[in-house]
Amino acid sequence: MTQSLTRRCLTEHPRAAKAVRTGLSAAAALLVLGTVPATAAAHEPLVEPLLEPGPTNWLFLTLTPGDGGQGDVRGDGGHDGSHGDGGHSRGVLLSCDPPQGHGHAAEACAQLEKAGGDISRLARLQPDDTFCPMIYAPVTAHARGTWAGRPVEYQETFANSCALTARTGSVFTMDG
Q1: Which residues contact 6 (CB under 8 A, 6 or more apart)?
Q2: Is the peptide bond before 98 cis (omega within 30 degrees of 0)?
Q3: What angle separates helix 14-43 from helix 2-12, to the nearest 10 degrees?
Q4: pTM of the model
Q5: pLDDT digit string (tens) for 50-94?
Q6: In what order do the strands lie in the sheet with 58-65?
Q7: Which secondary structure element, helix H or strand E, spans residue 93, and what is its range?
Q8: What is the 3-state secondary structure (H, E, C) of 5-73?
Q9: Helix (H, G, I), strand (E, B) or coil at 150
């Protein structure tokens, strides 16, 4: 019944029929035009992807008195009777583009550059004539970051801070 009324109305009123046809054509055109940019936009990113922000050669360095939870913590002051949890960690962000982060940043960055960012290779670059006292006061060194676009993850426990410096040079020397 609705179709017959609509058909009769459109045939009796030609201006109404023309208005309906124009309106339908305009709606169809808007529908088509509205989907074309949306389809194209779906294939293109709205925001340029960010390249790696900030410096490419950086390490977050931490020193923790004790053996990093591996056993005895003699020398760390373990006043609460706990073993293996060490003392309070100290941390610093060492950035090498330009060198900054701790008092020996330039020297540490130069040493890391020679080792290709591999902290375990630093021992080969250190002088062999370093003698450390035979005092067991373990310290755990940890480094995490990126060097030349590669991830760096390093952790090692040393018998004392002298042994740490003898093996890693200025990298973990956080004091002035």
Answers
A1: none
A2: yes
A3: 110
A4: 0.59
A5: 445 555 899 999 999 987 655 544 444 333 334 444 568 899 999
A6: 99-100, 90-96, 58-65, 139-147, 150-158
A7: strand 90-96
A8: HHHHHHHHCHHHHHHHHHHHHHHHHHHHHHHHHHHHHHHCCCCCCCCCCCCCCEEEEEEEECCCCCCCC
A9: strand
**How is residue 122 annotated by DSSP?**
G
Give the model confidence (pLDDT) of 102-143 as tens digits: 889 999 999 999 999 999 999 888 888 889 999 999 999 999
Centroid of chain to Cα 84:
29
- Give the residue carrying structure tokens 């370093």: 130
- Residue 154 sits at φ, ψ, to 5 deg, of -145, 135
| Residue-wise burial string across 36-55, b where 16 or more C-beta atoms lie within 10 A, e elsewhere | eeeeeeeeeeeeeeeeeeeb
Distance, in Å, from the CA atom of 36 to the CA atom of 31, rounded to the nearest integer, reads: 9
**Three-state secondary-structure class, residue 155:** strand
Both structure tokens of 74? 């003699």
48 strand-pairing partners: none
